[in-house]
Design a protein that fits this description.
With 296 residues, the chain is an alpha/beta fold. It has two domains: 166 residues, NAD(P)-binding Rossmann-like Domain (Rossmann fold, 3-Layer(aba) Sandwich), CATH 3.40.50; 121 residues, N-(1-d-carboxylethyl)-l-norvaline Dehydrogenase, domain 2. The chain has eleven helices and twelve strands. The strands form two sheets. It has an eight-stranded mixed beta sheet. Strands 4-3-10-9 form a four-stranded mixed beta sheet, covered by helices on one side. Strand 7, helix 3 and strand 8 form a beta-alpha-beta unit. It binds NADP nicotinamide-adenine-dinucleotide phosphate. The site of NADP nicotinamide-adenine-dinucleotide phosphate (NAP) has 28 residues, from helix 1, helix 2 and strand 9.
Length: 296
């Protein structure tokens, strides 16, 4: 098995978690940081009772050495600028994997760099930064990776297969759309009502709001040719709410902290598709505006 050299752009919670896991599976790792940091950079990764110190070489966008494999784990709204800052280190043979939440940044990137053809992924792993150099792996989940129209994984996927619960997804477009649809039905509502996910079912006025949102999102999903997702959406949303009932969504946490949210790449993307098909989605539009007033 060939283990490649991966540069990880976005050395936050997810980036450091995947850097550690890929290093464990034999890959060389370099963290791309914004500015000059200690090289190597020492990080502590907490996982259950386990605490490990790991060291990674670092690089910045100012360097010039070519990058063969790039994993992007910035927030959705940073993806295009962050990858652009490294464009001089990428070429047609570079493999780029985008693991941020939401949709829309991959096509923005392809518009700017038609030769890039990024892979995309979605993960339900959970991690957060305890401090700048300390990451806690808070929840074990599944990761699915793919590229539109590519049923079989490329050679670089071999060491990824060794990661816990990491799969090649034959229909990544559907996987990403389903995640987007579910996020649209849950995250903005929890942010606007400042509530845990579970309250979206336990409070009748919010449960009615979820129903109405799901109807709108299902109409857009159908128009976007994701009919099976449209048909199963209400049940899937309920399942996710039940499984994450005690969670505060990341959108709510961002709003509480006054941070920019990823809503432009979640509800914003749903609305771009709705507009394309001439579908009115007033509830989603209103939530987008309310969340942008709260968090940006
Ligand atoms: N954390 C989770 O549990 C989780 C779970 C599932 C999905 N996700 C998704 O994964 C993505 C990353 O989330 P996260 O929680 O890991 O975010 P995060 O901790 O904020 O990490 C993002 C990192 O990207 C860095 N960055 C942004 N622009 C950069 C640039 N131009 N050059 C170098 N570094 C740059 C940020 O640096 P600065 O701090 O300097 O801005 C930050 O360190 C999001 O889309 C999120 O929704 C996260």
């Amino acid at each position: 098995m060939t283990a490649h050299h991966w540069h990880v752009l976005g050395a936050g919670a997810m980036g450091c978690l995947f850097a550690a896991r890929l290093q464990d599976s034999g890959c060389d790792i370099t963290l791309v940081v914004r500015d000059t940091r200690p090289d190597p950079l020492a990080l502590v990764l907490e996982d259950g009772e386990d605490t490990r110190e790991m060291k990674f070489p670092t690089t910045t966008a100012a360097d010039r050495a070519p990058i063969s494999h790039l994993l992007v784990t910035t927030k959705a709204y940073d993806v295009v600028d962050a990858v652009s800052s490294l464009a001089h280190r990428l070429d047609r043979d570079s493999q780029v994997l985008l693991l941020a939440n939401g949709l829309g940044f991959a096509s923005e990137l392809s518009g700017r760099y038609p030769w890039l053809a990024p892979y995309c992924g979605t993960t339900t792993e959970g991690a957060y930064r305890v401090s700048s150099f300390r990451i806690r792996h808070a929840g074990h989940g599944a990761t699915r990776i793919g590229r539109s129209g590519e049923p079989n994984p490329p050679a670089w996927f071999a060491p990824w297969r060794a990661l816990e619960n990491c799969l090649w997804e034959q229909d990544i477009d559907s996987a990403l759309w389903e995640k987007l649809a579910v996020n649209c039905a849950i995250n903005p509502l929890t942010a606007v009502h400042d509530c845990r996910n579970g309250e979206l079912l336990s409070r009748p006025e919010l449960a009615r709001e979820v129903d109405a949102l799901c109807n709108e999102i299902a109409r857009v999903s159908e128009a976007a040719e994701f009919a099976p997702i449209a048909a199963g959406l209400r049940a899937r949303v309920e399942e996710v709410i039940r499984n994450t009932a005690s969670n505060h969504s990341s959108m709510l946490q961002d709003c509480r902290a006054g941070r920019t949210t990823e809503i432009d790449y979640i509800t914003g993307q749903l609305l771009r598709v709705a507009d394309l098909h001439g579908i009115a989605a007033p509830r989603n539009r209103s939530l987008l505006e309310q969340v942008k007033r709260l968090g940006g």
